[in-house]
């Protein structure tokens, strides 16, 4: 939970709205509690301790710069190969047309009716200067796409009847916007096919033969996530099981290191993969994941649990801990986990994985990536009014975190098999330097995305420069399942801070591409400070007013006690009846976080996250359901508690109504009375959170 407010566990269990979240809490280890406490620490407090871990000695930094320069120059001599790389370069997200394409692709995911799609296409495409991009790229793919967008834009924008071109427009436009919609759909398919290895696993295995002959290996991902029904989850489970069987047959006994593997998303295997359903998820999802792991072990291939949104990390760790301790999987080193370096908890998760592997006497595969959900994590924290972001707001901070975590993984060869997923030449060269010149198979491997990173790694795998193994992350699926993945890839690589985007732009100096992120952070005016143009969640509306404070239900608290930086509170009859909007009960002895054993990462202290008063009723948990959920008598009782004409503020909600809603398992509600209160109105000296 967010770092504001306090009570003990007994009060939580006794309270109706919070009772469902207090049941079945796990007894977490000190390392897991350190992960919880780090979730929303201030960015500066996270970055500065990592600088020493990521720093290289001057002589080593010089060798890294030389290797990275050779890689970049080799890439630029090869030139842009067309396809999506050329499209991303031509239509960068810094251009109006690039933004229009991204908006269009992302919005088409959610629009169910044809009429609204047609209106969106007219809005986004008609105003673009597509002709300005024509002929800039040598790629037929990019020029064909530009011609299509140019014609489509003119079809959507032309409304006059002058000249031959207008007559041609009218002739073609007789088909209406559905013709344009079909063309846009085809363009999305063309773009998506650049990222997808095949529509089926059999097709993907056939396509992989060419690069496997050059020394690459593969990890396949059956596209699909966030199942919404039990039928969806069962369909994805069958797809994973069939893929494991096919991959195992194609592996032909090559083993975990030399043969292909598979990545699975837990949200695809259960429709309620969320903290509020923890007990149900562990009871229903774990057997499915265990069966898939057994199947992968039987075929001699690796299985990675893919990374997802930040609020699902703790559930994923719970599943992993059970799998690692599963007796049937003892002796199998193909169990893996994916960690995202843009998360503030990443260094602490690395500690958890190393400790877990040693306790279970196994070697875990750990894929370290930079992160795939950055934009949604930022926006979700702002919308929910949380204490801070769970991710870094600057790309250079993610790079520092990545190098620090890479060093930690390389220092534990007995516990983990590191898999470094990166398209950045400087990051690649740094990891090679950290690992040392005496490479052996099984020490570590690199990974890249299908359709994006192969040019960088061809020289690495072939031995022209470094000779290190590389595994290609290859999604498998049809057009209907690839759009969500496509949008994430375009957002990730189309940004002007992306290495893939910048390396193709010869106007960007090589020195900028291979800059040391540690040096860049230390050279900043305020090292470790968050990005000034990304509004903090509580400061979303600037100086006009504070954003409403939300209740962060992720990650879960440990059953043995709440960490000092993660506290909460519950409503009391006394606070409601007096109408002060404050809560009088506080935890008397909150347990502290023990120091993580053998950890070089600083465990967040109580001062890392300050507690404060927030407006009564500000939590998002108290905003639903709406009034129709209450009986007419309850509504009458609520109206009776409005402020009186004498100016005295009545209770926000009568305690009777609160008890009725609690018995029905419903949260309380915020009323207009809460808006009259200002933050910090609590009169107590000890900071607490104010609730209705």
In words, what does this structure look like?
With 692 residues, the chain is of the alpha/beta class. 46% of the residues lie in helices and 6% in strands. It is built from 29 helices and eight strands. It has helices at residues 9-14, 16-22, 30-37, 43-47, 51-54, 58-78, 83-90, 96-107, 114-125, 140-157, 163-173, 177-195, 201-212, 230-251, 255-258, 278-299, 313-324, 346-360, 374-384, 395-410, 425-435, 454-462, 479-494, 499-503, 510-513, 517-522, 573-578, 632-639, 655-663, and strands at residues 217-222, 261-264, 303-305, 335-340, 364-369, 416-421, 445-449, 470-476. The chain has an eight-stranded parallel beta barrel with strand order 1-2-3-4-5-6-7-8, surrounded by seven helices. Helix 7 packs across helix 10, helix 12 (177-195) packs across helix 23 and helix 16 crosses helix 17. Residues 1-14, 149-176, 556-665 and 668-692 have low confidence and may be disordered.
């Amino acid at each position: 939970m967010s770092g504001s407010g306090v009570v003990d566990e007994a009060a939580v269990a006794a309270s109706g709205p919070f009772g469902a979240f207090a049941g079945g809490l796990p007894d977490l280890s000190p390392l897991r509690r350190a992960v919880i406490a780090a979730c929303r620490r201030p960015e500066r407090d996270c970055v500065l301790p990592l600088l020493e871990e990521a720093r290289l000695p001057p002589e080593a930094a010089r060798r890294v710069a030389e290797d990275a320069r050779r890689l970049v120059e080799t890439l630029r001599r090869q030139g842009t190969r067309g396809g999506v790389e050329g499209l991303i370069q031509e239509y960068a997200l810094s251009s109006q047309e690039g933004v229009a394409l991204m908006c269009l692709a992302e919005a088409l995911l959610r629009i169910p009716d044809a009429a609204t799609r047609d209106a969106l296409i007219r809005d986004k495409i008609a105003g673009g200067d597509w002709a300005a991009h024509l002929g800039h790229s040598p790629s037929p793919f990019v020029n064909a796409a530009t011609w299509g967008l140019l014609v489509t834009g003119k079809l959507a924008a032309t409304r006059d009847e002058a000249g031959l071109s207008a007559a041609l427009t009218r002739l073609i436009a007789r088909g209406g916007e559905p013709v344009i919609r079909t063309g846009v759909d085809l363009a999305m398919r063309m773009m998506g096919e650049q990222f997808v290895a095949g529509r089926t696993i059999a097709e993907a295995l056939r396509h992989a033969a060419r690069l496997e002959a050059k020394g690459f290996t593969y990890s396949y991902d059956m596209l699909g996530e966030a199942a919404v029904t039990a039928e969806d989850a069962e369909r994805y489970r069958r797809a994973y099981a069939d893929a494991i069987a096919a991959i195992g047959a194609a592996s032909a006994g090559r083993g975990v290191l030399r043969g292909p593997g598979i990545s699975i998303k837990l949200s695809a295997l259960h429709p309620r993969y969320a903290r509020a359903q923890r007990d149900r998820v562990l009871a229903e999802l774990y057997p499915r994941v265990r069966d898939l792991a057994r199947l992968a072990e039987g075929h001699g291939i690796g299985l990675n649990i893919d990374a997802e949104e930040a609020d699902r990390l703790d559930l994923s760790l719970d599943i992993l801990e059970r799998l690692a301790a599963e007796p049937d999987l003892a002796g199998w080193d193909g169990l893996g986990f994916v960690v995202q370096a843009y998360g503030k908890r990443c260094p602490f998760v690395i500690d958890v994985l190393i400790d877990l592997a040693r306790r279970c006497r196994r070697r875990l595969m750990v894929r370290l990536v930079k992160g795939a959900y950055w934009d949604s994590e930022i926006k979700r924290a702002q919308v929910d009014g949380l204490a801070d972001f769970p991710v870094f707001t600057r790309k250079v901070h993610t790079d520092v975190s990545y190098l620090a975590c890479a060093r930690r993984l390389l220092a534990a060869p007995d516990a983990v098999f590191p898999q470094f997923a990166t398209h950045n030449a400087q990051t690649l060269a740094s990891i090679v330097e950290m690992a040392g010149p005496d490479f052996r198979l099984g020490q570590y491997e690199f990974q890249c995305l299908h359709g994006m990173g192969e040019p960088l790694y061809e020289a690495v795998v072939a031995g022209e420069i470094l000779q290190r193994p590389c595994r290609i992350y290859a999604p498998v699926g049809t057009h209907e399942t690839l759009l969500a993945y496509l949008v994430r890839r375009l957002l990730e690589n189309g940004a002007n801070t992306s290495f893939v985007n910048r390396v193709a732009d010869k106007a960007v100096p090589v020195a900028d591409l291979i800059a040391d992120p540690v040096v860049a952070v230390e050279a900043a005016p305020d090292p470790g400070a968050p990005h000034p143009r990304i509004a903090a969640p509580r400061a979303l509306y600037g100086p006009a007013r504070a954003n409403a404070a939300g209740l962060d239900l992720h990650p879960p608290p440990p059953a043995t006690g709440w960490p000092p930086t993660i506290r909460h509170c519950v409503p009391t009859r006394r606070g409601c009846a007096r109408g002060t909007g404050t809560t009088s009960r506080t935890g008397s002895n909150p347990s502290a976080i023990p120091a993580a054993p053998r950890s070089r990462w600083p465990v967040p202290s109580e001062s890392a996250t300050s507690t404060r008063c927030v407006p009564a009723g500000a939590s998002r948990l108290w905003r639903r359901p709406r009034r129709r959920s209450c009986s007419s008598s309850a509504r009458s009782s609520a109206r009776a508690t409005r402020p009186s004409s004498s100016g005295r503020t009545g209770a926000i909600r009568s305690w009777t109504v609160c008890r009725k809603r609690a018995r029905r398992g419903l949260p309380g509600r915020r009323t207009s009375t809460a808006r009259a209160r200002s933050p910090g109105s609590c009169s107590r000296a000890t900071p607490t959170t104010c609730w209705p």
